[in-house]
């Protein structure tokens, strides 16, 4: 799996997952339970992962919907 998106904004994760789901791309959210360590203040980013083969298409979908993606 490859990292597609890393953000501290939970609404971006939800929106990205909805966009990818609409295109039948499976994704997995990591670091969801890190709020236990940070005290729930939202400073640690969450990651959205996709299969290696789906990464190019997933990046295109998010870029087409104005996501600012990091180059990894």
From TrEMBL:
- Give start and end of each DUF2007 domain: 1-64
Entries under InterPro entries matching the protein: DUF2007, N-reg_PII-like_a/b
Q: Superkingdom of the source?
A: Bacteria
Quote the protein name from its UniProt record.
Answer: DUF2007 domain-containing protein
What is the source species? Celeribacter halophilus
């Amino acid at each position: 799996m490859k990292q597609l998106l890393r953000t501290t904004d939970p609404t971006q994760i939800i929106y990205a997952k909805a966009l990818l789901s609409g295109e039948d791309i499976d994704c997995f959210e990591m670091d969801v339970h890190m709020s236990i360590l940070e005290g729930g203040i939202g400073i640690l980013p969450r990651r959205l992962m996709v299969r290696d083969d789906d990464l190019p298409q997933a990046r295109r979908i998010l870029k087409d919907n104005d996501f600012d993606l990091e180059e990894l």
